[in-house]
Amino acid sequence: MTQPPQTGDSHVDETLAGFHATRDQPLQERAEAALQAQRRLQERLTESSPGQGPSAPMARVAGAGRPTA
Questions:
Q1: Which residues of the chain have pLDDT under 70?
Q2: How far apart are CA 7 and CA 11, in angstroms?
Q3: I need a labelling partner for 62 at 20 to 30 A (CA). Which of 14, 19, 23, 39 fits?
Q4: pTM
């Protein structure tokens, strides 16, 4: 049995391992697991992107970070 790749990011590694564990499941269950994994990985990307934290949208609306003249 092959193992999923290890990325060094525990959140990503857990997500990949969970999806990998469904490899012998019926296609419908595997498709559901793939969608869930995609959502989790997208969330992780958003968390780690600069300026994309939970308060980033409000800061942009409020004009935070704009240079003042």
A1: 1, 49-69
A2: 9
A3: 39
A4: 0.62
